[in-house]
Amino acid sequence: MQTAQLEVNEIRKDFPILSRTINGKPLVYFDNAATTQKPFSVINAISDYYASYNANIHRAVYQIAEEATDAYEMTRDKVCKFINAHSREEIIFTRNATEAINLVAYSWGRKVIGKGDTIILSELEHHSNIVPWQMLCKEKKAKIEYLNVDNNGNLDLGKLESCIQQNNVKLISLSHMSNALGNIIPIESMIKYAHSFGIPFFVDGAQSVPHIRTDVTDLNCEFLAFSGHKMLGPTGVGVLYAKKEILECMNPFIGGGDMIKEVHKYETTYNDLPYKYEGGTPNIADVIGFSHALDYLNKIGMDNIRRHELDLTKYALECLSSLKGMKLYGDDNLSRRGGIISFNLGDIHPHDLATILNDNGIAIRSGHHCAQILMEKLDVSATSRASFYIYNTQEEINIFINALGKAIKLFRL
Ligand SMILES: Cc1ncc(COP(=O)(O)O)c(C=O)c1O
To answer: pLDDT band at residue 59, thresholds of 50, 70 and 90?
Structure first.
């Protein structure tokens, strides 16, 4: 992996929010697993669309409608290249990763999953990769089997084999990177293993695609979902990648304008891919904004981003582990982690800790992180979570550690 040091001070100038103060202190934004900040180029692209060529896409022949259509469709080409898909027909825009998962559960799942079938998930999953499958399984009288995790959140891969042998497994759906712990799952080998039994694989890439180079052609997964807002893009844009031959066989998700070829009184023929799955007016402005987020990430380079986050995570873990009362969660092996650190400090409730940190200008997340099954497994109701991105620095980690020191004193740990 050829990597270069990020010019973080230059990068920070592109993010207007980073010059804000909170409670008189510079904002330290460590909640990037929830959503990331947006550079000027993304913000400006959205207002430029509304100011200069706002029009609905795909239908009209006048100039600004063509400009809007071109900009929207150019984003699809960029996404296709970003994840190395075979063709732009395999890229479907949704509202977010959650909608992308629901789309597959609805359009593919209701066709393929039947009574007694099994879907394999893991105890690490975000609720978005659990609830749609639960809804499907309830309706179809199918069932879910969970791969267990140990106390560090590492998957029990041994169970995969027995689970496949004992059940009629129709899908494995796993998050590539846990949003609660930062653990990275060995999906490359798991996909190969699943395929040796003819089982399709869904990758929830909401946490991995923004941080790790992703190549769906190499991975050979059937489905991949992710959200633009977690990778410098605006909210309201998600992506579903699915293999073309699968998309061709699935039923539409939302019926209405744009997803049709011809509508007759009692019959409709559906549009070609990818439009068959994009019913109604899409989120044009934000998809165009997302294209600039992809440009920004490409300019920096995904391998450089990964290197930077690993450096920050290593430094933060070293600092955190020296604090009194610190309990760290997640994989001990740094190379199997992303830039997410979950922890508890003595018996301080994570919400109290997050409030103290906010007094110091620091934004971290506290709670169950939409991973209640994992929290139950770890026997905690909540953790505190710091998560990093391209604009975070070691100096910010020092501020964070300093503020945690204040909490330790305040609570007399
Ligand atoms: C692993 C994982 N999957 C899915 C999602 C859902 O993403 P969104 O809320 O953007 O749909 C998240 C969001 O945090 C996530 O971390």
So the answer is: confident
